């Protein structure tokens, strides 16, 4: 009886630990994707809300389906193949030459995405706090540089816990935006085309593909590396699915909140703070901190991804390169307005990411047709 009791307790502990790890992996995905673009609302405004109902639901559901596939696939392949470098994931899907192109292109894009995070922090400081954008951008770079200095394990431990909190607050703010002006959703759908809101593409479908495309270039190396730490296929699948679905639902809810208040958020750099200010300055102050936390949770893995491409975690080369990149990224990120940085960097790279998505799907289908299982 004692032995049976011990065995059951042990099994329960394993199961409990597995669930915790699933939540941690999902949280890491969410935290990675909720950067300056999402947390400020600028990304959601350009990719979802700007197309009205079609953008909110069409783009939203397209993103949900494709992001779930992408996250799970990266996790499973990373776990099964155990690549010596996470960037080998591109060679797996694209072959030698295209794989090499995506390897280096993704690093460039990830670095440019870090500059967008710097621009976002600067915009929050300037538009909400009335301070110099240089204070926000430089401050973010310093904190992120220090965080990346400690490597991937510390990174996942921190951002995996912050991510779910941020997404809950973002969803709550989106819901409040809807409930405060429920009739505004229909009105916003009719007005959005007349307000000259920046759009990511000419139509919602291409915007959705582009959105998944740039998110993929962010996630590829990061999730491949995390996939090696998963204990089972079930854990990898659950973590990837939960993270992608939760993030996509958050996008839809926030997009509806912005659509309901499109007249006040159109043309602003930080739409989410406009929604928060409609409630009270105190809430807006709290939301501004949340936005900065969201920027931080994305900026850290972005910078880590670039440095780890060239040097192993915690080596002197890794640390020196991290500091150098933080400095260069800060200079670039403070050159252009935040909304322009989102529109230029994300959109251009999103279209390149679509090619990677197509090659991934072809590889997955081929694997299925040939009944070639992934090891692990």
Structure description:
There is one protein chain. The protein is mostly helical. It has 15 helices and no strands. The longest helix is centred in the N-terminal third of the chain and has 40 residues. The chain is globular. The N terminus is likely disordered.
How confident is the prediction overall: mean pLDDT? Answer: 86
* Helix/strand order, N-terminal first: HHHHHHHHHHHHHHH
Number of strands: 0
C-alpha end-to-end distance = 34 Å
Could you give a short account of the major beta sheet?
A: none
Query: How many helices does DSSP assign?
Result: 15
Percentage of helical residues? over 70%
Low-pLDDT segments, ≥5 res? 1-17
Which structural class do the helices and strands define?
Answer: mainly alpha
Rg, nearest Å = 20 Å
Shape: globular
Portion of residues in beta strands equals under 5%
Please describe the structure with a list of short key phrases separated by commas or semicolons.
376 residues, mainly alpha, 83% helix, disordered N terminus
List the helices and strands and how they pair.
Elements: H1 2-33, H2 36-40, H3 42-47, H4 52-81, H5 88-127, H6 133-148, H7 152-180, H8 184-191, H9 204-227, H10 233-260, H11 262-265, H12 271-279, H13 281-310, H14 316-333, H15 338-369
């Amino acid at each position: 009886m004692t032995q049976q009791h011990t065995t059951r307790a042990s099994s329960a502990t394993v199961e409990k630990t597995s669930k915790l790890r699933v939540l941690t992996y999902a949280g890491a995905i969410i935290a990675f994707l909720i950067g300056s673009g999402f947390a400020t609302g600028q990304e959601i405004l350009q990719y979802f809300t700007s197309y009205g109902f079609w953008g909110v639901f069409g783009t939203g559901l397209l993103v949900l389906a494709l992001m779930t596939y992408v996250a799970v696939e990266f996790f499973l392949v990373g776990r099964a193949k155990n690549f010596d470098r996470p960037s080998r994931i591109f060679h797996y899907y694209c072959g030698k030459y295209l794989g090499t192109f995506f390897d280096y292109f993704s690093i460039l894009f990830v670095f440019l995405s870090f500059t967008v995070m710097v621009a976002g922090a600067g915009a929050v400081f300037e538009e909400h706090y009335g301070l110099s954008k240089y204070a926000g951008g430089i401050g973010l770079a310093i904190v992120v540089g220090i965080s990346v200095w400690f490597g991937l394990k510390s990174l996942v431990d921190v951002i995996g816990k912050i991510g779910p909190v941020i997404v809950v607050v973002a969803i709550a703010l989106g819901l409040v935006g809807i409930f405060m002006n429920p009739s505004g959703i229909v009105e916003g759908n009719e007005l959005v085309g007349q307000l000259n809101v920046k759009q990511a593409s000419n139509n919602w479908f291409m915007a959705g593909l582009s959105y998944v495309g740039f998110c993929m270039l962010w996630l590829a190396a990061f999730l491949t590396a995390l996939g090696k730490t998963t204990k089972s296929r079930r854990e990898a699948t659950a973590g990837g699915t939960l993270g992608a679905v939760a993030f996509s639902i958050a996008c839809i809810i926030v997009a509806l909140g912005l659509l309901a208040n499109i007249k006040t958020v159109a043309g602003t750099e930080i739409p989410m703070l406009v929604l928060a200010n409609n409630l009270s300055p105190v809430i807006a102050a709290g939301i501004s901190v949340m936005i900065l936390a969201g920027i931080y949770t994305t900026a850290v893995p972005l910078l880590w991804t670039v440095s780890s491409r060239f040097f192993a975690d915690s080596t002197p080369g890794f640390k020196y390169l991290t500091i150098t990149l933080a400095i260069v990224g800060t200079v670039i990120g403070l050159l252009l307005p935040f909304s322009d940085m989102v529109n230029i960097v994300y959109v251009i790279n999103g279209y390149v990411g679509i090619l990677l998505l197509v090659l991934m799907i072809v590889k997955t289908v081929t694997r299925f047709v040939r009944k070639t299982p992934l090891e692990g």
